[in-house]
Automatic annotation (TrEMBL):
Its cofactor is Zn(2+). Belongs to the metallo-beta-lactamase superfamily. This is Metallo-hydrolase/oxidoreductase. One of its GO terms (molecular function) is metal ion binding.
Amino acid sequence: MALPVPAENQPYCTVSALETGHIFFDHTTLIDNATSKELQRTPSLSFLLRHTTNSKKFLFDLGIRKDWENYPPAIVKGIKEVDHVEVPQDIFDALAKGGVSPLDIDTICLSHCHFDHYGHTSPFTKSEFIVGGETLQLFEGGLWPENPKAFLAADLLPAERTKYLDENVGWQAIGPFPRAYDFYGDGSLYVVDAPGHLDGHINLLVRTSPDGGWIYLAGDTAHHWNLITGKSSMVYGCDCAHKHTELAEQTILRVREIMKLPRVRVLIAHDAPWYDENRGGPAFFPGNIDSL
């Protein structure tokens, strides 16, 4: 269960939260003991990581695009009828607050390919994209506009700049997770295979100090904190938020375990309690989330 101890002159990453839109959830589709079907406004958070040694800039998720009407028609229909969004600020607005442009981003890691996470990729013309290997399974039915019913657009991921994390990347066990990828090769950032929510779903384990602080960015492993704490159970059937429920439950249990370790902060992409406590504060770029 232990996480890797720091090396001498251990590199790490600063982590900044980015407010990148809001989505409205009916909690009766997320947890089994929700008391109301009223839609609740929930943040869709992204994160900027900056490596302390090589100065690389790494984005985890892109949130919701402000011009969401330009998503594939199937997505637009779903937003209007089911999801509903508000995007007073998108990824580009959030980065601009710290003087960062899309051209400054070295790597974009998408936790998975749902619209409230993949945002608008086209302006990032110099970035490498990182996605879970099983993301390829989502493309098998064809992409929009060739397939007018598709939820993913053909230009979502640039073919020449996208890395699919398959069996060849050198997975290793870390803490409670059987598969993690040491992205920079120096113990500062691990991409974690986090199956269940959607094909290719991945998380990040980020070292946030040279002496043992960590943050775990859990993406959509859970949409509500009660699932991680165990106060609620998942909703099953056609309303379930996860594609592979048994795998999702296993991943939730692993996140619950890593949260027990000292100096590990856990955040989910739709972390309403954390957002309500920290919005507008120094945890958001150009500030940083304090290391534990």
